[in-house]
Amino acid sequence: MKTSYFSKHGRRKFKGAISIAVGQPKYVVVKTVYGALAPSWNLLQDYRNDNIDEDEYIERFKKQLAKLSPSVVHQDLSRLAGDSEPILLCHCGTEDFCHRHLVAEWLEEKLGIKIPEEEENGITRAEGYLNYPEQLDMFDIIRMRTEDEQDELAKEDE
Ligand SMILES: [Zn+2]
Description:
Layout: E1 2-5, H1 6-9, E2 17-19, H2 41-48, H3 54-66, H4 70-81, E3 87-90, H5 99-111, E4 124-126, E5 129-131, H6 138-144, H7 147-157
Parallel strand pairs: 1-3, 2-3
Antiparallel strand pairs: 4-5
């Protein structure tokens, strides 16, 4: 089982695709929808209207998930995907806050399985995001220099 997002696949029909989003873009050919893993309409509206922040979204969505049986959900998704690997889809890109990361974390934790984001192997999830390792830039490297290294550079300048 993996997660991904609609626009990554465009109009291409692909096996195992299961929407867990509220609604789908018009261009999408994903026929299989598993609504139990979509955020409730109320939750989505509250979030879109800025009535709640991400922390509250996470709290409410986790309560929604807690009403489901992770093993039944996993079984349903496997059956829906048939012979293929289930790919759970939402609208949000890889940089965005998305409920699919909360779904994946929930199934991973409850079932002791791994559900990677498609083509993002080794990237973990946290707080509803893909958790990319921090990109270091030159200034980070300069800050990481030890005092000895700084002394040495100072000497070279003399
Ligand atoms: Zn999403």
